[in-house]
TrEMBL record:
Biological classification of the source: Bacteria, Bacillati, Actinomycetota, Actinomycetes, Mycobacteriales
Name the record gives this protein: Putative secreted protein
Chain intervals with Acidic residues compositional bias: 100-115
Compositional bias per record (Polar residues), positions renumbered to this chain: 28-66
Chain spans, region Disordered: 28-115
Leader peptide range in chain numbering: 1-28
Length: 115
């Protein structure tokens, strides 16, 4: 039983490693596909229709507006933006490491000035 206190830290570290592995595999759950509906999974950058909450919030105003003919707005011409000119990249800083040598002035015969 003298060896048990000697190896107790190693045994506890290995037990914690096993617990972390079991917890990680339980949280990862790589065995099943994610259950995501099709609608929230899609993303559109230019929505052509207003959100559904705006349509359901005002159904009476939509019927009143549809009775009156709305004039067609004139399409506005948006000038095309030019791409910015690419800026030249600065060259990377060279990685020149100077190794520390404290024996640069020694002739290896006497080491009285070494620290």
């Amino acid at each position: 039983m003298n060896s048990l206190p000697r190896y107790a830290p190693l045994i506890s570290i290995l037990a914690l490693l096993v617990l972390v592995t079991i917890g990680g595999s339980a949280l990862a759950n790589n065995n099943s596909a994610p259950q995501v509906e099709n609608q929230p999974a899609t993303m559109s950058l230019d929505p052509t229709t207003p959100p559904a909450s705006d349509q359901s919030a005002s159904p009476t105003t939509a019927t009143q507006e549809s009775a009156l003919p709305a004039p067609e707005p004139a399409p506005t011409q948006v000038p095309a933006r030019q791409a910015p000119q690419p800026q030249p990249q600065a060259p990377p800083v060279p990685l020149n490491y100077q190794y520390y040598d404290d024996d640069w002035d020694d002739d290896s015969e006497d080491d009285w000035d070494d620290d």
